[in-house]
């Protein structure tokens, strides 16, 4: 049986993500490209409010993109409780300029009883890697149903 949160996000494929449970993710306004248990891919266009003074993607925003996509992927997993990041390790490998499009993907590496380990990558349309991250998420006491009913 598919979770209600996965069904919701599947209905958003090809659409701008601006009505999700994540306010920060709504601000990013990515376009959902793919979603399935253990994998998500979202496209973003680099806007002026995402850039540093050099007009390239700000490292904090790149980190937010990866953290949010990982969170979305984890949110549609089979867990009955919300999981939250306990770390996010980021490597910045190249830049993305104002106006460029990037794709951010997240894949589940390992699912444990209390922790899930994820990897995420930001790529330009050329395929060049802008940044990569790994993150561990831990179970909280908050039930997913409570979030969906807000």
Keywords:
150 residues; six-stranded antiparallel β-sheet; Thiol Ester Dehydrase, Chain A; alpha+beta; 41% strand
Termini distance? 23 Å
The helix fraction, in percent, is 10-25%
The name of the CATH topology is Thiol Ester Dehydrase, Chain A
Strand order of the largest sheet: 1-2-4-5-6-3
Shape: globular
| DSSP summary: helix tally | 4
* CATH architecture term: Roll
How would you describe the overall organization of this protein?
This protein is α+β, with helices and mostly antiparallel strands. It has a single domain (4-148), classed as Thiol Ester Dehydrase, Chain A (Roll). It is 23% helix and 41% strand. The chain has four helices and six strands, in the order H-H-E-E-H-E-E-E-E-H. The chain has helices spanning 4-10, 23-28, 59-75, 144-148, and strands at residues 31-36, 39-45, 81-92, 101-111, 115-124, 129-143. It has a six-stranded antiparallel beta sheet. It is globular, with a radius of gyration of 15 Å. The two termini are 23 Å apart. The mean pLDDT is 93. Keywords: Hydrolase.
């Amino acid at each position: 049986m598919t979770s209600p949160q996965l069904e919701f996000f599947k209905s958003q494929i090809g659409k701008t993500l601006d009505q999700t449970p994540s306010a920060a993710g709504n601000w990013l306004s990515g376009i959902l490209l793919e979603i399935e248990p253990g994998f998500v891919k979202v496209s973003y266009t680099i806007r002026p409010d995402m850039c540093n003074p050099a007009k390239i993607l700000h490292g904090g925003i790149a980190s937010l993109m990866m953290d949010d996509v990982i969170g979305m992927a984890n949110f549609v997993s089979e867990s009955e409780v919300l999981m939250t990041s306990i770390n996010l390790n980021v490597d910045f490998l190249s830049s993305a300029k104002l106006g460029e499009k990037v794709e951010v993907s997240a894949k589940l590496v390992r699912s444990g009883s209390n922790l899930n380990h994820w990897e995420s990558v930001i790529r330009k349309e050329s395929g060049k890697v802008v940044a990569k991250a790994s993150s561990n998420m831990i179970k909280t006491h908050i039930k997913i149903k409570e979030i969906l009913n807000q």
